User: Fold this.
Amino acid sequence: MLGLSVMRRLLISGGMRGLRLQQLLSEETLRHLQTSPHNTRHISVISTVSLWPFSSQPRDFSQPNSSWSPEMHKVYDNYNALCDTDIENGEEKRGPWRKLPSYNRSIKYATGGIHLSKLIQAKARLFTRNVKEQGATFEYVVFVNKEEKRCVCVFQAGRLLEGAPGHVHGGAIATMIDTVTGTLAGFLSGPVMTANLNIDYRNPMPLGSVVLIHSALDRIEGRKTYITCKVTSTDESKLYTESTALFVSISVGHLFGSRN
Ligand SMILES: CCCCCCCC/C=C\CCCCCCCC(=O)SCCNC(=O)CCNC(=O)[C@H](O)C(C)(C)COP(=O)(O)OP(=O)(O)OC[C@H]1O[C@@H](n2cnc3c(N)ncnc32)[C@H](O)[C@@H]1OP(=O)(O)O
Assistant:
């Protein structure tokens, strides 16, 4: 959602950084960045500053780490295998599943963010990736299926997410639902913001649980993208939450105070 003008510049200039971005963004988002008239007025501003003052190889938090339980590893491996490339009749064939990378700064999806520094503190971090201790809070990986317009997130809830004794805080669950539904909406519709999020909590989720967050497109009506979401146990026998979310497409200007 952030730094779209900066992203556009990277896309125009191409190269390794652009490739990293293209791995993350859907064709819809890329098309928006490349064509939106809202983005053009920012280009001249950033063209005069040096880009990428931070690491050019930001850490991808969607990689397995030692805090992951055997169950987390197993489910991750299952979905990761669906992302493999098959060879059929000597031709490489990619399946519909992709693993999305995840960083701890929104601006790491784009560039150094000098242009955004008045809006976003240099110390800003993505909410779900702001605790350094592995496994303490949100451990998750999102896999997206473009053809079926849906995604699945494997989520392991850490001990610092406690709400009711021994169980995951409802706000932490809402955060993950917002993140996963928002990721899918952004993937399908380009830059969006959450307008409405409605959650029914059906069963308490024990701390340390590994769960699946299944998210799917319901419909798109003009600027509105409606997403449904269910959180289940990994064998899908237990239902933790059911939810719906509405995302509204925005222009970059929306984040800078102007309306569409
Ligand atoms: C390029 C991609 C880059 C990717 C990389 C970036 C890094 C990402 C990293 C990691 C991914 C993690 C992903 C996280 C995701 C989290 C997302 C959030 O949490 S966003 C924060 C919380 N949300 C807000 O703060 C919004 C605050 N609200 C607003 O700004 C506005 O109200 C907004 C944009 C929602 C709508 O405002 P208007 O002025 O643009 O549009 P109007 O005309 O009001 O509404 C448009 C249509 O939507 C309906 N609408 C609006 N709000 C509604 C509501 N609450 N309920 C029902 N309908 C609503 C309206 O009735 C209207 O419908 P009709 O076109 O007339 O049919």
